Structure formats: structure tokens, C-alpha cells
Amino acid sequence: MIEEVLAAAAGAAAVFAVYAGAAARVVKQYERGVVFRFGRLRDDVRSPGFTMIVPFVDRLRKVNMQIVTMPVPAQEGITRDNVTVRVDAVVYFKVVDPADAVVRVEDYKFAVSQMAQTSLRSIIGKSDLDDLLSNREKLNQGLELMLDSPAMGWGVAIDRVEIKDVSLPETMKRSMARQAEADRERRARVINADAELQASKKLAEAAGVMSAEPAALQLRLLQTVMAVSAEKNSTLVLPIPVELLRFLERATPTGPAEAEQAAPAEQGQITAPLSEAYLKGRAAAEESVEDLTGTSVEPSPRESDR
């Protein structure tokens, strides 16, 4: 009798163990459990930890609640300004309602992927090339809004959408490079012109100061000589001040008397200033010549000519 009771207890324990093994489930921390009883959704969503279901009656489906990173395949399209581009993006989303994610859509990941590709094509057609290259934040927000509206009905929330890369044709890249180079050259010319204008103003102020103080030019000349000699060159360039040239110009004879006196000096002769005695002697000689010459007397006519 006791053996039969022990055998029955062992059988019951074995059945309970099999039942417990079939009914026991473990839901991880990042998951939620959705229970279907005879194909009908149960209202209670199983939280993380150990849980029990009715074997052969209930079916537990686990839903991942982590943020999913999904790359969007590159989409080729034509922008609003008729430029062919190829754009790829990445979508970050997560499940906020496990029951809707299981019941309302067959495969929420595939649905989000297809919706992202369609929205990306739409964004390409509505945007200009400059917006795709420089105003991506605004496009990302618009793309996120386009994805978030239908995804909320699937129990999915779009966390973030980012445009990763924009591929351009080679001809467009060369055109943009030439445009950027021309713009940089234009800015460089404007900066150089502005620098020349400022330098000319400063030089004009410096010239005004030097004209008021002639010694300042000599000091500047000495500073220039010192700066050139400090480089230890074999050739020394010495600039001539403009004031020196003007002094030489004033010293050059301009009248006929001065030119007459300067002529022998130009020929290599050394002339001394004329003394007063020499001038008196020269005047007396001229007077004596006039006395000897006198007035001219016409000859009398010959008698034979009469």
C-alpha cells in the first residue's frame, strides 16, 4: 500500500515537473511578453522576470524593447533643382507598445525600413542640393516627422533619423570645386585690396610726419641700412632719399652765366673765381681797342675816275 502511494506521488511529481517545465518562461530585462490564449490577445503584458503560462493553451511572444539601429539603403533621386544624387540614412527606433507591434503590423522592422526608404525619396525630391549638403538638421527633422506619424500606429516610436552621406556625380563635384575655388579667390582679392587701402592710409600718415620732421627720414634710412646689414649679405643696397635728389637739382646751374662757368668744369678743367683786377684790365683793353679802331673814313675819289 505504501509503495503504491509512493509511486503515485512520484508520478504526480513527474507530471507537475513536466507541466512546470512547459509552463515556465523567463522574460529578459529588455523584453516584454505578449500572451495569446487560443489565438486571442491577453490584456496583461508580461514584465521582465519569471512568468507562467498555460501549456498548449497560451503562446508567449517576446518583443525586444531596445533601440534598433536600422540603415536605410541608398536611394537615388533628382532634387528640386534637377541634380541627380544618391542619399543613404540611418533610423533609430524602439517599440513602445508591444501589443500593437505584434498585432497591428506583420513585421514592424520591415515596415519601418520600407517607410524610411519612401520618405527619403520624398525628401530628396522636395529639397535643393544646397539643403542636402548644408541644412541636414532641418531635413532630418522633416524625415523623422514623416516616419513618426505612421509608426505610432504600429507601437513604434522613431527616436532619431540621420542622413549619412550624399553622393554626387563627378561632373557636379568638379563644378562645385571650381565654384568654391573662384569664391576663395574673390575673397582673397578683396582682402588684399583692403590691406592695400589700409597700408596706403598708414603710409600717407607716415609721410606727413616725415615731411614735418626731415630728420625722421634720415633715421628711417639708418634703420633700413641696419636691417639689411643684419642679414649678412654680400651686397648692400643703399636707398637714396628723395631730399638728396632735390638738393642736387637745386645745386645744378640753370642760367647762361652759370652754364658758361660750369662748362670748363664739365670738361675736366678747374676754374677759379674772377678777381676784380682782372675785370678792370679786361675793361681797359676793350676801350683801347675801340680807340685804335676809331670811326671808318671813306677814301676820296681818284682823279682818274672823274
Structural class: alpha+beta
Mean pLDDT: 79
Radius of gyration: 56 Å
Q: Which parts are unreliable, with pLDDT below 50 for 5 consecutive residues or more? A: 262-272, 292-306
Helical content band: 40-55%
Q: Globular, elongated, flat, extended or rod-shaped: what is the shape?
A: rod-shaped
Strand order of the largest sheet: 3-2-5
Record field, number of beta strands: 8
Largest sheet properties: 3 strands, antiparallel
This entry's quaternary arrangement is single chain
User: H/E element string?
Assistant: HEEEEEEEHHHHEHHHHH
N- to C-terminal separation?
215 Å
Strand content: 15-25%
Number of helices: 10
Task: Explain how this protein is built.
- This protein has 306 residues and is of the alpha+beta class.
- 55% of the residues lie in helices and 21% in strands.
- It has helices at residues 2-23, 98-103, 108-126, 129-134, 136-151, 170-212, 214-229, 242-251, 256-266, 276-293; strands at 24-27, 31-37, 40-46, 49-52, 58-64, 68-78, 84-95, 156-167.
- The strands form three sheets. The chain has a three-stranded antiparallel β-sheet. It has a three-stranded antiparallel β-sheet with strand order 6-7-8. Strands 1-4 form a two-stranded antiparallel sheet.
- α3 crosses α5 and α6 crosses α7 (214-229).
- The termini are far apart.
- Mean pLDDT is 79; it is low at 262-272 and 292-306.
